[in-house]
Amino acid sequence: MVLVTEDMIRQFQSMMEQIDEPLKRTFQNVHQGNPTETLVRFLKARDGNVAKAYKMLMDCLNWRITSEIDSILAKPIIPRDLYRGLRDSNLIGMSGYSKEGLPVIAIGVGLSTFDQASVHYYVQSHIQLNEYRDRVILPAASKKYGRHISTCIKVLDMTGLKLSALNHIKLMTVISTIDDLNYPEKTETYFIVNAPYIFSACWKVVRPLLQERTRKKVQVLSGNGKDELLKIMDYASLPHFCKREGSGSSKYSRNGTVDNCFSLDHSFHQQLYNYTIEQARLLERNVPIKQGSFHVDFPEPDPEDAKIAKTIESEFQKLGNQNGVCNSFRNVRINAD
Questions:
Q1: CB atoms near residue 18 (< 10 Å)
Q2: Considering the chain, what is the average pLDDT of its residues?
Q3: N or C: the chain end with fewer CB closer than 10 Å?
Q4: Burial of 266 per CB tally in 10 Å (0-12, 13-18, 19+)
């Protein structure tokens, strides 16, 4: 893993001092009072190459300006039933904090259907979650735990995973690319739980192709991962799909929506959604909130990632033929944000 030196940081800082004022303003929303730590993230994402890290950050800041990312938290998805549909079909939420204060983000990979709205709504919702995490959740965690916290933990539930899930690969690739290029190094560890055979077979192909820093972040746990996860978080912060015994849906829990961090009725999503409504009212006083998706520019995947994806496609084609199952894979990538 790359060692970021003081010389790298100073060189990067000197380059950032020369940027235009609009870029400086949006950079403030990115670093949230911690510019040095942000520069380190981008340096890590480009293996310590200052010139490449600078270009990456400039591309990110220009994307934010062009796509008006700074105001995306004032663009609520309405009506509320539409947002509920997004939550029911894109299973993601926050279940609590680790013992070190890192937010625990739960993702229901296997049972997400992405079939309730256009791609633009799913992308808008995903970016809003990223921005709310970076602008609200992480600063609050830093204050509560008395130290700078800039990363989260992700627990990925593979319950129900089928090869046909890759019908959603276009959307998954868009979201993954946005995270890779604009929110690098935001995840401390990925924990994989409830992994069926299909994941294990695919993981053997994917793992050697990942960059070392990404491989080190991924841990595949046995079963629902409860015993291992309890070493780093309290029971209350476990995602609901890690609390149940045996197999079952990651969508629901015995306690209904109270414990289901994917649901709009969960406190995290209630707070996030209400936050966007309030920000919209502050931004546009006495103006009705309009319905409509928030379109952003979709960046092109990194050439190296495209090369990796082509290799994965070929290997997955072989796997599909061997198992007599769907073999229409087009592109797969592990998000290394």
A1: 7
A2: 86
A3: N
A4: buried
